Amino acid sequence: MTSLLDDKEITRELWQSHLPVCFILADEDKNKMSRSESPEPLYLMLARHSYFPCFIEKIHRYYCNYFKNDPNDTTNNMNLANLWLEYESIPLKWHYPIGVLYDLYVSSLSSISSHVPWQIIVHLSKFPEGEIIRFPDKESIEAHFMSTIKEADALKHRGQIIEDMQKRDHQQLWNSLLQDRYDGFWKINNKLMTYTDNLQYFRYIPFRIHILDKPFIHKLFSPFNVEEEKWTTLNDLLQFTLNHEAHCEQIANEKKIFNTNINDYRVIIHGIQPSLQSPVQWLSEHFSYPDNFLHICLIEKRT
Amino acid sequence: MAFTLDEFYKCISDLYDQSKKIHDRWQLIETSKGSYLIYSFIDNNCLKYEFHIVYSESYSVPVLYFNISNLDGSLLSLDDVWKLFMHKKTSNMYETITQQEHPILHRPFFILHPCHTESLLRKVVDQPTKKRFIFWLSIYGQSVGLPLSVNYAID
């Protein structure tokens, strides 16, 4: 696929994209405060491509200041492992990149016009372990990130490229993300964007479609239509996936039939509504998150 | 070496049929998101084990998901699970087991990472699909306490 040299700038722009987030302690945890004054909200500017579990320690340390004077605090309420985040009564599935969660939940649920700073409730107890993954340390979110990248490479290249890499290359991917080093990340990530099996494209496009209140959708989808000899577009990918989903629901005789009309959705990747005619191969190379997946949020338009 | 989705479905429905015959406890669950097998039991220490065998389209192999819970329903942490099976200290915990979103139930489950499954299956490449499936299940299941009757290996 021919691509302009300038296209690389898009990946840099996306890398630099940040969200202001305002963390507010949940009321029920405020009651356990030893001090009389309520903690001030905590404001952080977070990269869209980063993950909330990377900041658990920082958030936890901030609230610890308000608790530490309590000599009777022998409970595990302040245990870092019990910290979780909520938006509009939904526990945030923080194993997805921050930008994906923002695009999905804020675009779908927010009733006000100004969405920033994004206000998130911090809980220090009652961890909903049946709904969200625990990340007790930095290693666990790193492991999650690496397993997602491996899955992407299994789709793109049967896992050949990630397997051939050295362990230090894997670490460089993660560390560059943590330390916000674009060049360090792309030095390795470029290898994951090459082609194998004598193809001029990826075997399959790693993507996930996120819709509010529905499990994410993932299918095998090729960026090139061999029979018609043409590149497949974002529109093709969405139509294929939604039709497949509706078909499966029909077979299972589920009453709620899926809305397959793409025009009824806003299609958002990285906070942007890309043209539906964009070739998915190009999108995969430029609009994927660092985990190498295209995270596509579908927001049902309100009537 | 890999399994197609149809081969996988054939394997799990065969295993399910055989399980009924020998009065074992495998259950076959069919949903609009795909079919999978469940095996659950409570051990002598009152821990409840639940194993799911789910197909991974990305890797084209079966994947073993599991959770272990106390009687009050609380889930064991990865550290607890790791200690339970006394895995060698030298091996890297996170490269073997991670907590992930179950692809059908979308709840947290532990997963034995599938990225080495295909190379494992290469060792039995000339065997019929069903044999390869049982081979995989016996090796992966054994490492996290899934009991598998020898009957499944007998034709």
UniProtKB/TrEMBL annotation, chain A:
Subcellular location: Cytoplasm; Preautophagosomal structure membrane
Positions of transmembrane segments: none
Domain called Autophagy protein ATG5 alpha-helical bundle region: residue spans: 139-194
Primary residence: cytoplasm
Membrane topology of this protein: Peripheral membrane protein
Coiled-coil segments on the chain, per record: none
UniProt domain Autophagy protein ATG5 UblA: residue ranges: 14-123
Keyword tags: Autophagy, Cytoplasm, Isopeptide bond, Membrane, Ubl conjugation
Any GO CC annotation of this UniProt entry: autophagosome
Keyword Cytoplasm attributed: yes
Family affiliation: Belongs to the ATG5 family.
Function: Involved in autophagic vesicle formation.
Name under which the protein is recorded: Autophagy protein 5
Organism: Rotaria socialis
From TrEMBL, chain B:
Keyword annotations of the record: Autophagy, Transferase, Ubl conjugation pathway
GO biological process, one term: protein modification by small protein conjugation
Organism (species): Rotaria socialis
GO cellular component, one term: cytosol
PANTHER family xrefs: UBIQUITIN-LIKE-CONJUGATING ENZYME ATG10 (PTHR14957:SF1)
Domain of life according to the entry: Eukaryota
Family statement: Belongs to the ATG10 family.
The name this protein goes by in its record: Ubiquitin-like-conjugating enzyme ATG10
InterPro entries: Atg3/Atg10
Keyword Cell wall biogenesis/degradation: no
GO molecular function: Atg12 conjugating enzyme activity
